[in-house]
Write a structure and sequence with these properties.
By secondary structure, this protein is an alpha/beta fold. 42% of the residues lie in helices and 21% in strands.
């Protein structure tokens, strides 16, 4: 098990390294302070998870994420001082699995890493029949989503989110229910959920789906609406 930390602040690297050594000593920690080295290290070392800062000295972390996603589906957790919704949406759109805003509790970050890895390692269920709702098909066995025969380019988190909504089609799911199912126990960041729902709806509607296929139940949660 390997974890790659891409971070230029020594105190952050020290805090993250310490919590791993104390609570998860089996993990081999790798680190770099330069974004230009991150993608190369992912390719060479094949880490199980990447903890990525956006404010790197040489390359913006968003560009690093783009480089990594060009060839790898390794789980990426963004850790940054940028708490604005634009940065969060951009990170999720490009395939980040989670977004943690500084300052943060290292113990909470460790839990988020474990939750992300647990979801990423859920085995493919070869015995599950595809889900069909109008022109939308979810192929659980191959983790593929298509609309009118065209594959949708979803991030791993968007895929998990859509699957959870679809498996509960017609039911209103609370924010807490969705956060637990998609991100794990103890996760409370509804901003990330809203950003991910927005990106997922954008991709579905751009493919031709009705914008109301994911219904917003204000103050409660969301519902997958099966087309009639």
């Amino acid at each position: 098990m390997k974890a790659l930390i891409v971070e230029d602040e020594p105190q952050t690297i020290e805090a993250v390294s310490l919590i791993f050594k104390l609570r998860w000593p089996e993990v081999e920690l790798l680190s770099t302070t330069r974004g230009s080295e991150a993608a190369l290290m992912v390719e060479k070392e094949s880490p199980d998870v990447v903890i990525l800062d956006l404010g790197l000295p040489d390359v913006d972390g968003i560009e690093v994420l783009k480089e990594i996603r060009a060839f790898s589906d390794v789980p990426v957790i963004i850790v940054t001082a940028r708490g604005d919704s634009i940065s969060q949406v951009k990170g999720l759109e490009l395939g980040a699995d989670d977004y943690v805003t500084k300052p943060f509790d290292p113990g909470v970050l460790l839990v988020r890493v474990k939750n992300t890895l647990a979801h990423a390692r859920i085995p493919l269920n070869q015995g599950t029949a595809p889900f069909a709702a109008g022109n939308l098909i979810i192929d659980f066995a191959n983790r593929q989503v298509s609309f009118r025969g065209k594959l949708l380019d979803l991030t791993p988190t968007e895929y998990r989110l859509l699957c959870h909504l679809a498996r509960n089609a017609g039911r209103v799911l609370s924010h807490d229910n969705i956060l637990r199912a998609v991100w794990g126990e103890g996760y409370e960041n509804t901003d990330i959920l809203r950003a991910c729902i927005y990106q997922l709806r954008q991709k579905l509607t751009q493919a031709g789906a009705n914008p109301g296929i994911i219904s917003v139940e204000r103050g409660v949660g969301y519902k997958f609406v099966v087309p009639r």
